[in-house]
Amino acid sequence: MQEIERVHYASTNAVPKPGAADTTFFVQVDQAKCQSCGTCEEVCSTGAIQPSDGQNGPRTVVDPTACMNCGQCLANCPFGAIYENVSFLDKIEAALADPKVKVVTMPAPAVRYGLGECFGYPTGTYVGGKMFTALRQLGFDKIWDNQMTADVTIMEEGTELLNRVSGKNKAPLPQFTSCCPGWIKFAETFYPQILPNLSSCKSPIGMLGPLCKTYGAQEAKIDPKQMFTVSIMPCIAKKFEGLRPDIKDIDATITTRELAYLIKKHKIDFKNLKDSEPDFDLGESTGAGTIFGNSGGVMEAALRLAYEVLSGEKLTGDAVNITPVRTHTGVQAADVNVPKFGVVKVCVISGLHNAVPIIEEVIAGKSPYHFIEVMTCPGGCVNGAGQPLAPDTLQSSLFKSVIARMNRRFHMRTMG
Ligand code: SF4
Ligand code: SF4
Ligand code: SF4
């Protein structure tokens, strides 16, 4: 076991064999450390983590099928008893050391709001400029920002919504978002009947991998066979997503924590780095791509597109902020008035257990909504389980863990 930013890893070279992601535990409990406090069971939406003795003994993740790989149990365990079981760190270091290999990095929007915490910055500080410089110093050949394909996702998902609303696309309403791998696995496992309601779009990183090895390789004159793509995510479930057979061209995935580890291991003086920009070979990105990391962000970005197309009016000034859909926890429903169209009914859900009654409504044919966003983690990706742990987790008693959970409300990261 190796400790990285207060989380243990089974190995820094533990990559599932091709096709084995579905049967791999991405997180697991160290039975010797578990204090049987039950916090992990409270935060797990699927019942995948349970007492190993069937009573109140140390917990274990019982079944990889039932586990959405979200890592919220790990992020909330007050005793540091849950470890990550999959890591591409050694594979990435080998690629960076090989002069024949061109290593492309694809950082997600939320990473730049979490990384600073590992270097002493206050929660939620934007450190994107320093992160890009650090990535170059680590030896990455290209930084193709995942924020750019967040914009592509919005265009695709927003257009799909417009076509479903107008009847041009016969797929059913409401349309659910499809960018969170925890949510996708949840729907596939427990509610396959609603899969036609899920947007047909891949997630931003699902789109960026193939773009890197086709358009990007062409633009940058890199042989795609010599290209090694690294996705940097605030999320453990994105490691699972990158290994899915229907997601192509992502060679490795690491979390914000693992990026901080690499930066420290290579003795890069992060705080004193100058800011720099990503490489724009694939294009630039907008503020709509940035807010993807917050719960409600995907919805808000897609609504901006839908609003302008349906009404023919440009959103300007404060009007671009469709604040009723911004939520940090739970369920937020809103009616958005769109001139020349009418009311678009939307719902933003944070936490899979909160999705269940809304899904049941859809299955019963009683859903009033046009568009529903579901994010597995409370507050969205910015609070994903690949981000640095909240300062007051890993305390040493149950009492402290209760206080920690109360305090975490005030450490909830937001962005955009
Ligand atoms: S939260 Fe941690 S210590 Fe508590 S039961 Fe779960 S694994 Fe054990
Ligand atoms: S990773 Fe998520 S789904 Fe799996 S056991 Fe932990 S909380 Fe439950
Ligand atoms: S909400 Fe974001 S961080 Fe959490 S599982 Fe989904 S994609 Fe990952």
Please tell me about this protein's structure.
- By secondary structure, the protein is of the alpha/beta class.
- The chain folds into three domains: 2-87, Alpha-Beta Plaits; 90-147 and 204-272, Rossmann fold (3-Layer(aba) Sandwich); 152-200 and 287-381, Fe-only Hydrogenase (Larger Subunit), Chain L, domain 3, CATH 3.40.950.
- The protein is 34% helix and 15% strand.
- The strands form five sheets. A four-stranded parallel sheet has the order 8-7-10-11, with helices on both faces. A four-stranded mixed sheet has the order 9-14-13-12. A two-stranded antiparallel ribbon has the order 1-2.
- Helix 6 (146-166) packs across helix 8 and helix 6 crosses helix 12 (297-311).
- The longest helix has 21 residues, at 146-166.
- One iron/sulfur cluster binds at residues 70, 180-182, 234-235, 237-238, 375-377, 380-381, 384.
- One iron/sulfur cluster binds next to helix 7 and helix 9.
